């Protein structure tokens, strides 16, 4: 019969103390669970029993004390009663150092106090303070202090019992106590490096160094309604004068009455209109956070640039107004050049344009201008080289995609909270980046798998890239660098962001396109080999400080500028004596290096580890020039030529000419020039389920078939566009417009 633990007071004093160490302490974190068994008048600490040198688990799990038989425990107590502890000098020392010729014995609590190492694995070895294992340190490793990535307090880079170094990340250091508490909370399934998320190598080293990792699920997984508090989102306007007539708690998304939370603490909010904010993308600081920054120096007005300021064409895009209707897109240069080249054909006999009615002949020019300006020629060459690089990236990503198996993982995504639901999905135990990903939006209507599974996945990755670009993980305008977000570091979100980008690239998502060249070089070449520039500084106040120092034209003005921001320089570790005007160059470089690189060392390392998923970072480091085309350059705007080149036209062998090919090319031109109710993105979405061209390309490649049908059909499973053969171009155009517009409208509704 299974023994029951009792906490009654029917025993003498001896029975409430551990039979092995003699202590009455009840501290599960240090000594394991203290268990009292009524039937045998026995009390024991679990760790004392586990680490005792003369006892083994000879029974089943439900026998005795977790497999330790009661008779064996009695024998071990009698054996230990003859041994004196080398630390407290009392009898009952049941644990001995396993090093040959070492005769030291001690109680478990005494060993903890004397900094002995207990290995909770295999045969549960114990090492005394003299023979305990130590971690090796490279001679070139810096010895300055850094942040413990769990508690975020400083930890010295010293070979001490209380300090542990990650075996997988050279910049990750921990307090032993922090790691032990983390291990007890996370359990064997979730305990891993907080920077790179490595599990196997990290756990092996921590077990060697005496960290106990319990074989159970994480504490947060066992607690009922553990995530209930996370569902609460602060929604209250805290500004002195609230302008909203419906009250401070009123929140209407995508309007001027949407509540924006403080970018630092998140526990204060404001309506956009109440703080004269023109866009939700603008950052807002509450008064409490402003006062904290004010005390640190002359940075009281920390107004950062809007995350997308430089991407707007006419100042700042205002979310308070209705979005403008879709405007026609015009390609640079001659918009009809591609008509001189035939699209990809699977048959050899293509009828000349004169055999079919040409669409809008007064609008479609079939000849090129004999003279092209130098600027257009240079732009055309640049676009050509960019396309070639992206094609190389596509081929490389296809190699990585070979790892993806047919086994599927379904992600249930809430479109209204895309980031949180994505993180939850990527962190679930069954998720593997090598599985085929299916996405199901929980707040969308049920649709057939054939038409929407691919569309949902493409849309999911597109929303994720947009969220990442505008998230607190990045800062800057067009070319973004990593920002320092302590909450994101604590929650390991930088690793997840890198992992999501890697998975997106291989599984058919869009290219990021918003990285700065400095960030890309840090990822590829390492931060120690990168020299940041002034444009990498997103903080307006810091940029102004650097500019002031840089523009100092004499020693007096330089010393004055340094004096004005001495507190900031001291905090950044850049404060140095200024004795000559030439010192400003070194000072500027120090500030840039600190603000852009050193300040975000932990986020950068974590982000890099995430990008290693599916081997993406390794390929980036092997082919940096081509990968910069998708990380640092915005995706190429769709043009009629781009869409035409995407499709391969199939025709039956018994057809002497591909009827309708000219209508198709002419229709693309009309769409690009704005003379259609649909856009080129709509056409792509109708056929493939994606409104963009994935970095890895389409699988299978898009094709076109001309058939005797009444309306066009987009087969998203095969990426095949079936087009009707019509007598006139106007019939073709009307049918295409009607079908594509109505199909997409029904899907949207």
From TrEMBL:
Keyword Transferase: yes
Pathway(s) where this gene product acts: Protein modification; protein ubiquitination
Residue ranges of the region described as Disordered: 303-338
Chief location category: nucleus
Gene Ontology MF terms in the entry: ligase activity; ubiquitin-protein transferase activity; zinc ion binding
Cellular compartments annotated: Nucleus
Residue ranges with Polar residues bias: 307-317
GO CC annotation: nucleus
Name of this protein: G2E3 ligase
Species the sequence originates in: Sinosuthora webbiana
Phylogenetic classification of the source organism: Eukaryota, Metazoa, Chordata, Craniata, Vertebrata
Gene: G2e3_1
